[in-house]
Amino acid sequence: MSNEKTIRLMESENKLVFVVDRKANKTDIKTAVQTLYKAKVLSVNTHIIRSGDKVALVKLAASTPAIDIATNLGMM
Questions:
Q1: How far is CA 61 from CA 8, 11, 13, 24, 58, in A?
Q2: Sheet of 41-48: strands edge to edge?
Q3: Alpha-carbon separation of residue 75 from 1, 6, 17 (angstroms)
Q4: Residue-wise pLDDT tens digits, 41-51
Q5: CATH of the domain at 15
Q6: Core-most of 60, 61, 63, 65, by most CB within 10 Å?
Q7: Count of domains in the chain?
Q8: The pTM is what?
Q9: CA separation for the pair 28, 10 (Å, rounded)
């Protein structure tokens, strides 16, 4: 997934993109994000990309801006 698309998802849809373990399920991912980042997760979608990695698109509640979490992680 390109950096531009990832930033657009953060700004317009309040979503974060993570590369996760292929064995992780949606519940595991949701619990991990809520625990690690103290964020309210609304939904999790997963995809296997061409490189064989599993990517999770995590939609956050409006009370937790994705851009704030990305900034705290040093991504922005």
A1: 17, 13, 10, 22, 10
A2: 15-20, 54-60, 41-48
A3: 15, 11, 11
A4: 999 999 999 99
A5: 3.30.70.330
A6: 60
A7: 1
A8: 0.88
A9: 21
